[in-house]
C-alpha cells in the first residue's frame, strides 16, 4: 500500500510530466482518406432465432448496444474510452446480425492500436451480452422461456466473429478511384448517411466471410502495413510477428484474379492456441494452415509468419500499391501536430517494475538485451489518458500480463533509450494475474531479489540499481504505512 506522502510525491511528479506531454487534437475527418473497417457478426444467429423465438430479440438488441458501447463508437463513447481523440470509430450501418464500423486512419501507428483495442472489446462482448440478458430475464424485462440459465443458453449457442480491412476512399464519383464515399440526399442534416463502395470494400466483405467466433481476421494489406510499421522498432516487430499469423490461404471470386489470398488472424498467444480452440474448429477453412502444420508446430512454422505477405504482394503485383499507401500514411505521421516546445516526433517509454504478493520481481528475458522490465511506448502529441490506464492496459495488450498500478504510481528511475531517442520512466506495479500463467511462459519469470543479485545473465543498463531503488521505496512505503 502506498502512503499518502508517497502518493502525493508521485502525483506531483506525474502532474508535471502530464502537462508537458499531453496534447489533445481535434477530430477533423477530411472528405477523402484511408479508412479502417470492422465487421462484428453474431455466429449461429439464424438457428438461435428459430430455437428461442421469445429470447432472440433481446439478445440482438443487447448485441448492438454492447458492440457500440465497447468499441467506443461516436455518440456511445464514455469518458474513459481508450483510443486517442484523432481516431474516432463511427457506425457505418447495421445489417441484420452484423454491425459495421469505420474509422479514418491518420497515421500508421493507429492501425495496431485499433486492432488490439477491438480484440480487447471482442474478448468480453459475449459474456457481457449473456450477463445483461440474464439480468433482464431475472427482472422480468425480457422473456426467458422458462430457461434456468439464460446466460448459459446464450454463450453455448452464440459467438461473435470479427474482421478488419482497409481501403482508401474518395468523395463522390471518380473514374480513377478504386473506392468511393457516397452520401445519399436526405431531408434533414441529422439524418445524413454515409456509405462506402468499391473494389477493396468488396474484398473486405469476402474476407469477413472466413471470420470465426472470438477471433479477428484481417486483410493482407492491413497486415502488411502493420508489419511494415513494426519493422522500424525491434520490440514492436517481435510482438507483431508473434501476434499475427497466416492461418489460411483462400481463393475468392473476383479477388486477386482468383489467386489464393492469405488470411491473417490476430491472437496474443499462438503458442497456447490449442487452449482456445473448440474441438471441431480445426475443420473450418480458416484453420487450414494450422491443421496442416499441427497446432503444436504452427506458431513456429515460418511459412505462416506475417513477414511472408511482403513476398506474396510482389507475386500478385500489389506491392507497388501497398507501398504508395504506406508512404501516404507515413508522411501524415511525419507532420503530426506536437507541442510547441518539441521540434520533432519523439517516443516516451514507461517501464513497470512488477512485484507479486511474495515480493518476487517479474522479469522479462529478451533474446538480445537480456533481463529487462518490459515497457510501453507512447508518442508526444497523442492523447495520454492517465498513467494507471496506460500501464495496466499497455502491459495487457503488449504482453498479456495483468498488473495493478496506482493512479499516480511512484517513479523509481528515469532512463534514455538512445536507439529510438526515447526518454523513459520506471514505475512500480503489482502483479494481478495468476502465477500459473507466467510459469507456462518462457519469456517472463518471477525472481527473488537474491537470485537477481547472484545472476550473471546479461541485462539492460542500471538493471540491478533500479531494482535496489524499488526495493528501498517498497520497504519505506510499508514501514510508513505500518507507522500510521
How far apart, in Å, are the first and last alpha carbons? 12 Å
> Looking at the chains present, what oligomeric state does this protein adopt?
single chain
Largest sheet: 9 strands, mixed
Strand content: 15-25%
Summed over residues and divided by their number, the pLDDT gives a mean of: 83
Total of DSSP H or I helical runs spanning 4+ residues: 16
Calculate Rg over CA atoms. Answer: 24 Å
Helical percent range?
25-40%
Describe the structure.
The model is unreliable at 16-30, 78-85 and 335-344 (pLDDT under 50). The N and C termini lie close together (12 Å). By secondary structure, the chain is an alpha+beta fold. The protein contains 16 helices and 17 strands. Helix 3 (56-70) runs antiparallel to helix 4 (109-138), helix 4 runs antiparallel to helix 5 (150-157) and helix 7 (220-230) packs antiparallel against helix 8.
List keywords for this structure.
single chain, 484 residues, alpha+beta, nine-stranded mixed beta sheet, 16 helices, 39% helix, globular
Write a compact overview of the structure shown.
39% of the residues lie in helices and 23% in strands. With 484 residues, it is an alpha+beta fold. It is globular and about 65 Å long.
Amino acid at each position: 500500500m502506498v502512503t499518502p506522502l508517497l502518493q502525493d510525491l508521485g502525483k506531483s511528479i506525474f502532474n508535471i510530466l502530464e502537462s508537458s506531454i499531453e496534447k489533445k487534437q481535434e477530430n477533423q475527418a477530411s472528405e477523402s482518406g484511408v479508412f479502417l473497417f470492422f465487421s462484428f457478426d453474431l455466429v449461429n444467429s439464424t438457428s438461435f432465432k428459430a430455437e428461442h423465438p421469445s429470447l432472440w430479440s433481446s439478445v440482438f438488441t443487447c448485441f448492438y448496444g454492447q458492440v457500440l458501447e465497447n468499441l467506443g463508437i461516436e455518440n456511445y463513447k464514455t469518458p474513459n474510452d481508450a483510443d486517442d481523440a484523432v481516431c474516432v470509430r463511427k457506425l457505418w450501418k447495421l445489417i441484420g446480425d452484423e454491425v459495421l464500423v469505420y474509422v479514418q486512419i491518420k497515421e500508421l501507428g493507429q492501425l495496431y492500436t485499433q486492432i488490439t483495442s477491438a480484440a480487447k472489446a471482442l474478448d468480453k462482448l459475449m459474456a457481457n451480452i449473456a450477463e445483461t440478458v440474464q439480468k433482464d430475464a431475472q427482472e422480468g424485462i425480457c422473456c426467458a422461456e422458462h430457461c434456468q440459465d439464460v446466460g448459459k443458453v446464450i454463450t453455448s449457442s452464440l459467438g461473435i466473429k470479427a474482421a478488419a480491412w482497409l481501403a482508401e476512399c474518395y468523395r463522390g464519383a471518380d473514374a480513377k478511384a478504386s473506392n468511393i464515399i457516397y452520401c445519399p440526399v436526405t431531408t434533414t442534416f441529422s439524418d445524413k448517411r454515409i456509405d462506402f463502395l468499391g473494389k477493396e470494400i468488396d474484398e473486405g466483405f469476402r474476407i469477413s466471410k472466413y471470420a470465426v467466433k472470438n477471433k479477428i481476421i484481417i486483410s493482407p494489406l492491413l497486415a502488411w502495413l502493420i508489419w511494415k510499421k513494426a519493422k522500424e522498432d525491434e520490440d514492436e516487430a517481435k510482438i507483431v510477428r508473434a501476434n499475427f499469423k497466416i492461418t489460411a490461404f483462400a481463393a475468392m471470386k473476383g479477388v486477386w484474379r482468383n489467386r489464393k489470398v492469405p488470411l491473417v488472424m490476430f491472437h496474443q498467444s499462438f503458442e497456447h492456441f490449442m487452449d482456445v480452440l473448440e474441438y471441431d474448429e480445426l475443420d473450418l477453412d480458416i484453420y487450414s494452415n494450422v491443421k496442416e502444420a499441427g497446432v503444436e508446430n504452427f506458431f513456429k512454422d515460418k511459412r505462416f509468419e506475417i513477414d511472408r505477405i511482403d513476398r506474396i504482394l510482389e507475386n500478385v503485383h500489389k506491392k507497388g500499391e501497398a507501398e504508395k499507401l504506406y508512404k501516404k500514411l507515413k508522411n501524415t505521421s511525419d507532420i503530426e501536430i506536437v507541442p510547441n516546445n518539441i521540434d520533432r516526433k519523439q517516443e516516451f517509454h514507461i517501464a513497470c517494475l512488477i512485484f507479486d504478493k511474495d515480493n518476487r520481481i517479474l522479469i522479462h528475458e529478451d533474446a538480445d538485451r537480456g533481463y529487462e522490465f518490459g515497457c510501453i511506448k507512447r508518442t508526444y502529441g497523442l492523447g495520454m489518458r492517465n498513467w494507471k490506464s496506460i500501464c495496466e492496459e499497455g502491459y495487457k495488450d503488449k504482453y498479456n500480463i495483468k498488473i495493478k498500478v496506482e493512479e499516480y504510481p511512484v517513479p523509481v528511475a528515469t532512463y534514455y533509450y538512445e536507439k529510438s531517442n526515447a526518454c523513459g520512466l520506471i514505475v512500480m506495479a503489482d502483479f494481478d494475474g495468476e502465477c500459473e500463467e507466467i510459469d507456462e511462459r518462457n519469456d517472463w519469470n518471477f525472481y527473488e531479489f537474491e537470485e537477481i543479485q547472484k545472476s550473471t545473465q546479461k541485462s539492460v543498463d542500471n538493471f540491478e540499481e533500479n531494482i535496489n531503488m524499488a526495493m528501498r521505496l517498497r520497504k519505506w512505503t510499508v514501514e510508513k504505512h505500518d507507522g500510521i
